[in-house]
């Protein structure tokens, strides 16, 4: 998990655990990524049912 977080977010788990501001930014970014993936899935679903 440490390596994955470091690669995807540029922050190690230890730093993520220690710094609230980093944690909040990462969680905000994760939420944005999740919402974007939902939009993409919705678009693909629409295209598949044409």
- Structural classification: mainly alpha
- pLDDT below 50 for ≥5 consecutive residues: which ranges? none
Q: How many helical elements?
A: 3
Strand fraction equals under 5%
| Strand elements, count | 0
Largest β sheet strand count, sense and barrel closure: none
Succession of helices and strands: HHH
Give the termini distance in whole angstroms: 40 Å
What is the average per-residue confidence, as pLDDT, rounded to a whole number?
87
The gyration radius over C-alpha positions equals 15 Å
> How helix-rich are the residues, as a percent range?
over 70%
- Principal-axes shape call: elongated
Q: How would the blueprint of this fold be written?
A:
Blueprint: H1 2-9, H2 13-18, H3 20-48
Can you walk through the features of this model?
The protein has 50 residues and is mainly alpha-helical. The protein has helices at residues 2-9, 13-18, 20-48. The longest helix has 29 residues, at 20-48.
Task: Please provide a brief summary of the model.
By secondary structure, the protein is mainly alpha-helical. Helix content is 86%, strand content 0%.
């Amino acid at each position: 998990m440490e390596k994955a977080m470091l690669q995807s977010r540029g922050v190690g788990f230890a730093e993520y655990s220690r710094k609230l501001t980093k944690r909040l930014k990462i969680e905000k970014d994760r939420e944005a990524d999740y919402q974007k993936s939902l939009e993409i899935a919705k678009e693909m679903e629409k295209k598949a049912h044409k």
